[in-house]
Amino acid sequence: MIDLHTHTTESDGSLSPEELTRLASARGLEALAITDHDTLAGFDRAAPLAAELGLELVCGIEMSTKHEGRSVHLIGYFFSGAPAREFREWIVCLQESRHARNQELIEKLKTMGFEISQEELRQQGTPLPGRPHFARLMVEKGYVDSMQQAFDRYLDESACCYIPRGEPSFAEAVERIGLSGGVSSFPHPGRVTRDAARLRKILAGMRETGLNAVEVFHSENSPAESDLYASLAAELGFRISGGSDFHGATKPGIELGSGSGGNLCIPYSVLERLRRSA
After folding, report:
1. Using an 8 Å Cβ cutoff, are 50 and 31 in contact?
2. pLDDT over 90 percentage in the chain
């Protein structure tokens, strides 16, 4: 069993890279990919411990990109270890964009009577805070009843306080991953649309950018949805990927490796086929 979609405290997960690595080893995972948002720091921290424990650790990153006018995520996998200096320098721009967006969001929330500071965000235990950290603070301060309510009313793309941030185009991000020797994968396609015909059209367009794979297995998928994504991947010539999207306590109910209610058991062969497309 493998898990190719996880997050640590280097982005919006609740476990440190070392804690996540130990948990993966304890659960008997054959391979783990750390795919923190806009950073490789989680992989960098976890790599020595993974080698000590005999766990195959895959370097990954999840990025926000723009595709056809909307924000969509993209995962890059690097099977020879972390990519070189050029890619690292490029993602610094993504990190700076995140910090700038956070300051704008702080100002916007102030107009609604919500006082949240950069210092409070830093105390959330991550160098790259995002909207989940805002939502957690809003719950802690009594502004909302739940993180979901924070997103629904204030932080989601359709909500009143949403602040977009500078994002690279999907095509540019795919190209950057490829030039760094990586494999690009489109995660949780159901978040973009659950209409099969619409999704097929979107994936066909993504294929033209050089996208390598589609995340077929994910904690949010029903069996029918995973079957649909696998069928579309085969039809359009994509490799398949999969992972739990584990965040620890940030997303309760999603377990490392096994997903939601045990709906995942991703075989090692998925990783082998992905690696061959590098």
Report:
1. no
2. 80
Separation of alpha carbons 138 and 148, rounded Å: 11
Residues 176-190 pLDDT 10s:
999 999 999 999 999
Between vectors from CA 102 to CA 186 and to CA 169, what angle results, nearest 5°? 30
Domain 2-83+169-276: assigned CATH number? 3.20.20.140
Query: Among the CATH numbers 2.40.128, 1.10.150, 3.30.565, 1.10.4030, which is that of 93-155?
Result: 1.10.150
pTM assigned to the model: 0.90
Relative orientation angle of helices 85-110 and 131-140, to the nearest 10 degrees = 30
Would you mind telling me the total number of residues written for the chain in this entry?
278
pLDDT confidence of 192, banded at 50, 70, 90? very high
At residue 94 the predicted structure's pLDDT band, cuts being 50, 70 and 90, is: confident
Q: Bridge-partner residues for 63, per DSSP? A: 74
Query: Residue 186: beta bridge partners?
Result: 214
Distance CA 4, CA 217 (A): 10
Which of 32, 71, 100 minimizes the C-alpha distance to 256? Answer: 32
Domain ranges of the chain: 2-83+169-276, 93-155
DSSP classification of residue 235? H
